[in-house]
Structures are given as structure tokens and as C-alpha cells.
Design a protein that fits this description.
Elements: H1 3-38, H2 43-58, H3 60-67, H4 72-87, H5 94-97, E1 99-104, E2 110-115, E3 125-132, H6 141-147, E4 149-155, E5 165-173, E6 176-181, H7 190-193
Antiparallel strand pairs: 1-2, 2-3, 3-4, 4-5, 5-6
């Protein structure tokens, strides 16, 4: 074999190897991304919680008043549909599962509990609880925002097998929106939730 043919063959092997590695790298990257994404919360679920948080804290008077009416579930469903149209691909069980129930806590505060469609992935919410004082409408906007708490009870799928839920919250502290993860199990039942020390 001539030196020219030998160099040409080695060059061809290198180019084919390089192309093969590129294809393999793309396929492995795609498989890895799909594996990771399959375990993440669905986008419409997360964006619903973020949108609800944004609305509640932007105008606490309006939305806490709305949560105390018979139109609460209709409003919650409209926010759900908005996020589902932008980011989701399903609406199964929407009309029967999404409910709003108001419970009075021992200290007099109110909690509007939103029952979500059953979560499928870790990080998706079972229920949301909006806690606020009954006199929130009499407070100025900044004071009302500080008194508002949004609790989210998520499905937990971490390495800790001692629990299947995770309690998180958003609130204004020191003038900033704070996200707290309590890393505790909490009941999925609305009546039992009312007994927690919110």
C-alpha cells in the first residue's frame, strides 16, 4: 500500500470516527435530557403556582376577596386554563378536581385551600393554601402583602422514604419575596391541614 493510500485511509477512519462520536454524543445527550425531564414537574403545574403567586401578591385585596366567594373555583380554573394553554397538554379531571375550600384557623385567620389535579411527578402540588387575616381588606397594600402566605404541598420523590409530601411556602419577609421549604411531611386532607400551625 502506498503512503498516500495509507494516509487517505487513516484520514477517512478519523473523519468517520469523529462523525460517529458526534452522533453518539447527540443521542446520549438527548437520552439524558429526556431521562431528567421525565422526572421533573410538568411546566403547566409549576407555572400555575407561579402565576397564582404573582396575582395574589400583586393585588392581595382583590384576590383574597375573590377566594372567599362562590366564584373562587371558576377564577382558579381560569388561571389553570391560561397556564395549560401556554405550557400544558392536558386538562383531565379539571372540572371535578380543582376546588376551593375556605377554612377558619384557630387564630382567626382564613385559609383558602385549592385542591389540585393529582400530581404525577415529584414537585407537583397536591394542594395550595392561601392564608390571610380576615381584615386584610382594611390593610394598606404593603401590610396586606406581608400578612399573606402561600403554602404549597408538593408530591415528594426524594431519597427519603419516610414521607411522600413536602411543604413549601412563599411570603414577603424583609421586603422581599421568600421561598421556604420546610422539608416536612404534611397531610393531604383539608380538614387536617386546618389543624396545622400555619
Amino acid at each position: 500500500m502506498s503512503p498516500f493510500t495509507s494516509v487517505l485511509l487513516w484520514g477517512l477512519v478519523i473523519v468517520l470516527g469523529w462523525l460517529g462520536l458526534g452522533v453518539l454524543r447527540r443521542k446520549l445527550g438527548t437520552a439524558l435530557r429526556q431521562s431528567i425531564l421525565a422526572k421533573m414537574p410538568r411546566t403547566d403545574r409549576i407555572t400555575f403556582v407561579f402565576r397564582l403567586r404573582e396575582l395574589l401578591f400583586s393585588d392581595p385585596h382583590r384576590f383574597t376577596a375573590l377566594l372567599q366567594t362562590d366564584q373562587a373555583a371558576i377564577w382558579v380554573r381560569s388561571v389553570w386554563r391560561e397556564m395549560n394553554e401556554k405550557f400544558g397538554d392536558e386538562e383531565k379531571g379539571l372540572e371535578t378536581v380543582m376546588e376551593v375550600e375556605n377554612v377558619k384557623l384557630r387564630d382567626g385567620r382564613l385559609i383558602a385551600v385549592i385542591k389540585m389535579p393529582p400530581p404525577e411527578q415529584s414537585g407537583e402540588a397536591y394542594i395550595l393554601g392561601i392564608v390571610f387575616p380576615p381584615a386584610i381588606s382594611e390593610m394598606d397594600v404593603l401590610e396586606a402583602r406581608k400578612s399573606l402566605r402561600l403554602f404549597v404541598l408538593n408530591r415528594f420523590g426524594g431519597p427519603d422514604d419516610t414521607r411522600d409530601t413536602d411543604l413549601c411556602a412563599w411570603m414577603i419577609q424583609r421586603g422581599k419575596m421568600q421561598h421556604l421549604t420546610y422539608n416536612v411531611d404534611a397531610p393531604k386532607d383539608v380538614a387536617e391541614l386546618g389543624e396545622l400551625g400555619w
